[in-house]
Amino acid sequence: MKNVNKILDKLETIYPDAQCELEYTTAFELLIATILSAQCTDVRVNIVTRELFKKYNTAEDFAKLSEEEIMGEIRTCGLYKSKAKKIKEASQMICSNYNGKVPDTLEELIKLPGVGRKTADVVLSNAFNKDAIAVDTHVFRVANRIGIVHTKTPEKTEFALMEAIPKHRWSHSHHVLIFHGRRMCKARKPECEICLIKDDCDFYQGKE
Q: Is residue 1 pLDDT above 80, yes or no?
């Protein structure tokens, strides 16, 4: 049985600055940035949103734009056509159903077009300071490689991590697992030999 708290303690020591790397000032800005981050780097999203949010940064702003106008603003983020549609529809729904304010519960967030559990969890944990574990590709890969969980899908990973990790550590564990995935436990070439948690890792021990 893994000592999950011990592993998280080590990761927090390695990545003391672990936090959301998307730039935002409001829950709505974070929601838009997270939608844009699908299959796109946070670095690229931040480049786009630095200019985008100077012009438009409320649900009302985006609801008034055409999909084509939104496409023009986010073109370099990839999948821009489908993202523009989701952003416009989500903005309209926030205006009509939530008085222009991003809802602060998982149940309401996932009703928004383009918002799945991962996006909702990012917004809940970072914008609303609620306990949540957002499972992206890094969290899914790293948690399974280490052996904290043994799951086949991101959703199953989320629920397994909620069981394995104390609730008060959910949100920050998401950040340290992402930092580890981006900086050390990379998808194609994990740097196992210099990894400081290799002795706790099933992948390194050849158990995966």
A: no
pLDDT digits (tens, 9 = 90+) for 86-121: 999 999 999 999 999 999 999 999 999 999 999 999
The domain that holds 138 is classified in CATH as 1.10.1670.10
Q: What's the CA gap between 133 and 108, in Å, rounded?
A: 17
Distance CA 2, CA 36 (A): 35
Do 116 and 50 reside in the same domain of the chain?
yes
Half-sphere exposure of 173 (CA within 13 A, CB side): 26
Q: Is 17 a known active-site residue?
A: no
If asked whether residues 188 and 161 sit together in one domain, one would say: yes
- Selecting among 86, 88, 118, 200, the annotated active-site residue is 118
Residue 192: band (very low, low, confident or very high) from pLDDT cuts 50, 70, 90: very high
- The active-site residue, picked from 83, 88, 121, 136, is 136
Instruction: Identify whether 61 is a catalytic site residue.
Output: no
Q: pTM (2 decimals)?
A: 0.93
Residue 92 per-residue DSSP state: H
